Amino acid sequence: MLQKIPLVLAMVVLAIGLVSCAEKDEYDPAHDYFSYANTDEFVTRHIALDLDVDFSTEQLRGSVVLYMNAANGSGGDIILDTRDIDIDGVVFVGDDGSVTPAEFRLGENDAVLGAPLIISIPAGVNTESEFAVRIEYETSPTASALQWLPAELTAGGKHPMMYSQSQSIHARSWVPLQDTPALRITYEAVIHTPDELLAVMSADNDPLAPRRGEYHFDMPQPIPAYLLAIAVGNLYFAPLGEDTGVYTEPELLDASVYEFANTQDMLEVAVKKFGPYQWGRYDLLVLPPSFPYGGMENPRLSFITPSLLAGDRSLVSVVAHELAHSWSGNLITNATWRDGWLNEGMTSYLEGRLMEIIYDRDRVDENHVLDYQELLLDFATVPTWQQGLAPRFDVGDPDDFQGIIHYHKGQLFLQYLEESFGREVFDSFLLGYFEDFAFQTITTEAFLDYLDEKLLRASPDVVSREQVEVWMYQPGLPADAPVPSSKTLDQAAELAVAWATGDVSVDAIPVEQWSPQAMVHFLNNLPAELDTSRLERLDSTLGLSATRNAEIGRTWFIQVAKRRHEPAYQHFTEYLSRYGRTRLVAPVFAALANNGHDLELARSLFADVRRVYHPITLSRISGILDKAAVE
Ligand code: BES
Ligand code: ZN
After folding, report:
1. How far are the Cα atoms of 198, 202, 203, 215 from residue 279, in angstroms, in the given order?
2. Which range has the worst mean pLDDT, 11-15, 321-325, 511-515?
3. 62, 92, 175, 255: which one has the fewest Cβ atoms less than 10 Å from its Cβ?
4. For ligand 1, atom 22, which residue shows the shortest CA distance?
5. Average pLDDT for 345-350
C-alpha cells in the first residue's frame, strides 16, 4: 500500500504533465512557419538558373538546378516552396550528366505560402553526397515577385522593363526553392533577354557587358533566398566612385548621379565603422515609380525608388539604410521573419550612425523624431501582444508583420544599449558581432545570449538581461527608453501652432532654412481646426500640392484627406500616379477612405491610378479599402 502511493502520484503527475503538454503552446520561435521546405532533411548549397525573359507573355521560362545535401540518413521526399509556378519536369542529374526523371506533385495552395512542390527521390539515385535536381518551369504573369512594366510606364517610354522583389517570401514565385531566410545559397545564372535590353542581378554585374541578349552571373557569397534579384530593361550605368555606381534608364542617369553622389563616401565610412564590406561592388538600381519600397538591399545592387530623386539629396538616408544592410541583414540574417528586427532595427540604427558621419547629428535627430512619432502612432493601433520586438509569429503574411516596430523600436533599443554602455564599448561589440556571425543566420534568442556574454555580463549593473527581455517581449517602450528630440523640429512644431493662431504670418515661416523633415513636422503639428482659406494660403505660399519632395507630398496629402481640404483634391490623381512606393500612397488612400466621407472617392481614384502600381502596393491598398468599407 505504502509503495502504491508514489506510483499513483507519479501517474497523476504524468497525466497532468501530458495534458498540459498537449494544451501547451507548441510555438517554436526558431521554426520558420512561412516555408514548406523540409530543411531538417535536405539543404540547398547552390543553385544554377537558366531563364528566358519573355516580355510578350510576361513569363520567365527555363530551369533551375538545385545542388543539395541530405541531412544524415534522410530518405524521404524533398519539399520545396513554389507559388503560381508551372512545373514542366523534374530530373536528378548525375555527376556524369546522366538524368533520372523524378516523380513530383504540387500540394494544396495557400494564399500566402503558395504550394509545396514534393519531389520523390527515384530509386537508384544516391543522396548521400551532394546531388543535383533540375526543375524545368515557367512563372505566371501574375508571379507575386515580378513586375512586368509596359514601355509607357518606364521613364523612357520605349522599352519594357521587368524586376523582382523577393522579400519576404516571393522568391518562390519565380524560382522553386527552399524559400527560408534560415538557409544560405550561392548562385549562378544565365539570363536570355531581348537583344537591346540589359539584365542585372544581385550578383557580379558587368556594366560593360555587350548587349547580346545573354548575360552570365555569379554570386559566390552565400545569401538567403529573399535576396535573389533580377531586373531587365533599358538600363545604363554611371560610376559614383571607385566601388560604387548606379544603373537606371538613361533619362534618370544624371539626376541619379547627382542625388546619390555620396554613396562611395557612405561605403567607406561604413567599412571603417562596421568592418569589411564582403560583397565586392556596391551599386544602385534606380527603378520606375512603381517599385513598392524605398529601397531593397539586394546584395551588390540595392534596388531604389525614384521618389528619392528630390534634387537636394534630402532623402538619401534610404541609401544609407540599404547599404547598412550589407552588414545587418545580408551578412547576418534573421533566422525567421519573426526576428526581422535583427535585420531592420539594426539597419535603422546603423543608418543613423552613417548619416551622422556623412551629414550631422541634427539631421539624424530630425529623422529619429519623425520615426518616433510614427512609432507612437503605431503603438496606438497594433495589438499589444504584437508590440514586442520578437513576438510570436506563426500566421499571417510576413510582408505585413511588425513593420514600424521592427524598424523604430529596434533602432531605439540599440540606441539605448549604445547610450547605456557608451559608444566606444558598443561599437566594439558591433564589430565583433559582424565578425563572429558573418554569413550566418541568427534568432533573437541567440542574439540575446551573445549580447549577454559580450556586453551585459562584461559590464555588470549597466543593463540586465531582464531589461533587455522587456524590449523583446513586452508591449510599448520601457520607461527608460531614449526619447529622440530635435531643436529644429521643436521650432517647426511651435511655428505650426503660432501660425494657426495667427501670431505668425505665413511669409514669416523660415522655410528656406528648413529641411524637408522640418516641413513634415510642421504639417503634422497643425492644429485640428483650421479654416479652408488658411490652408489654401499655406498651400499656395509653400507650394505644398506641387512639391517634388515625396515626403512633404505624403504628409501634405494625408492632411488634405484627413481634413477634407477639398480645394487640394484636384491634385490627388497627379500625386497618386506620380508615385507607386507603398509608403507614399497607401496612407493617403487610408486617410481618404477613413475620413467618413470619401471612401467612394478613394475607390475611384484607386481605379484611375492602379495601373501604375506594383502587386504588393495593390494588395495593401485593396486591404485598406475593404477594411474601411466594413468599419
Ligand atoms: N528590406 C526592406 C524592404 C522590405 C521590408 C521588403 C519588408 C519586404 C518586406 C528595406 O531595407 C527597407 O527597409 N526599406 C525601407 C527604407 C527605409 C526604412 C529607409 C522602405 O522601403 O521604406
Ligand atoms: Zn531595411
Report:
1. 21, 10, 9, 20
2. 11-15
3. 255
4. 294
5. 98
Output the nine-digit C-alpha cell for 87.
512545373
- Classify residue 251 as exposed, middle or buried by CB count within 10 Å of its CB (0-12, 13-18, 19+): middle
Residues in contact with 548: Cβ distance below 8 Å, sequence separation at least 6, in sequence order: 310, 311
Enter the pTM of the model. 0.95
Residues with CB under 5 A from ligand 2 (ion): 344, 347
Measure 332 CA to ligand 2 centroid, in angstroms: 13
The rounded Å distance from CA 404 to ligand 1 centre is 10
Range of the domain at 17: 2-23+327-484
Tell me if 309 is assigned to some domain.
no
Last residue of a domain, one of 450, 484, 518: 484
Grid cell in block for residue 155: 521613364
> Measuring from each residue's beta carbon to the nearest atom of ligand 1, which residues come in under 6 Å?
167-168, 293-297, 318, 321-322, 325, 344, 399, 407, 583
Tell me if 446 is assigned to some domain: yes
Residues 275, 428: contact at Cβ < 8 Å?
A: no
CATH of the domain at 605: 1.25.40.320
Q: Which ligand sits nearest to residue 351's alpha carbon?
A: 1
Measure 347 CA to ligand 2 centroid, in angstroms.
Answer: 6
Q: Which of the residues are catalytic?
A: 322, 407
Q: Whose CA is nearest to atom 19 of ligand 1?
A: 318
Which residue, by CA, sits nearest to atom 15 of ligand 1? Answer: 294
Is the CB of residue 275 less than 8 Å from the CB of residue 282?
no
Give the position, in ligand 1's atom list, of the atom nearest the Cα of 293: 21
| Spacing, Cα 224 to ligand 1 middle (Å) | 16
**Model confidence over 586-629: pLDDT tens digits?**
999 999 999 999 999 999 999 999 999 999 999 999 999 999 99
Ligand 1 atom with minimal separation from the 407 CA? 18
Instruction: Give burial (CB, 10 Å; 0-12/13-18/19+) of 437.
Output: middle
